[in-house]
Amino acid sequence: MQDYLRHIVHTISVPGFRNVQRSTWPSMMEYLEHEISGMGHSVAVQSWHDNTGILCKNFIVRLEGKRKETFILGGHYDSFDDTPGADDNASAVAVILGVLRELNPRETLEYSWEFIFYACEEPPYFGTKSMGSYVHASQVVSRQIKCMICLEMVGMFSNTSGSQSYPFRALRWIYGNKGNFLLGVSLWKSGSVPREIMRKLRRRNQRFYRKLFLPFSISGLDWSDHRSYWMHRIPALMLTDTAMFRNENYHTLKDVPATLNYEAMETIVFDLLSLIKTE
Hints:
Elements: H1 2-12, H2 25-37, E1 44-49, E2 55-63, E3 65-76, H3 86-102, E4 109-118, H4 132-137, E5 145-152, H5 171-175, E6 182-187, H6 192-204, E7 209-214, H7 226-231, E8 236-240, H8 262-278
Parallel strand pairs: 3-4, 3-5, 5-8, 6-7
Antiparallel strand pairs: 1-2, 2-4, 6-8
């Protein structure tokens, strides 16, 4: 699995390749759809045009479960400006592809699951109705969604003291100063399902998974695709390596494949698979 994750990240972490406004954007969309369908999964494409006429696509794989109630596992595949975007967000793309690679397209799960690769999370789309996640969230039947799980930068880990910072210094006393964990972020109003997801992940690896659930959003808490679901009152949880609070290469040309921890990413893949098969 580590070799596969590394292959995906290296293939798509080319400067500017995944930027919506670059000439390579159609090639990225073609590559992603081909990679998914090559696993035997059926791919639904949700298309729209941005305000300049650029074609954008979400790619959706749905596995029907015994119940129609649906969990979503998603992450954005576009990148910021001309950065390679290895952690942001090729790491999430690779992990979701890794999960799909291990799932039989004809497998029947307890709940239905959708695996979504979103376009248009990065500026200038962030916070607008052109975000791929907003396009999707605005069209689903909210009561049928149990929870949306957003993967946002899941590849940077370090056991070095001082490798983890925080927006508020007090958090250092709770989570420590080593960037060796994945943080689950949600709001209390998302209800009990995100908390149950984190309990299940922590039962598998308590030291690796930490959680931050708050009564209201603070700066940085909604900086990814889960915000679109919160806006539509759909429970959502973000799993993240904390982005710029750990990764000094965030939104720079130094966000390259060699900086990621593929062993940790493999752990995430199989922990998510365990979650999917037991929900």
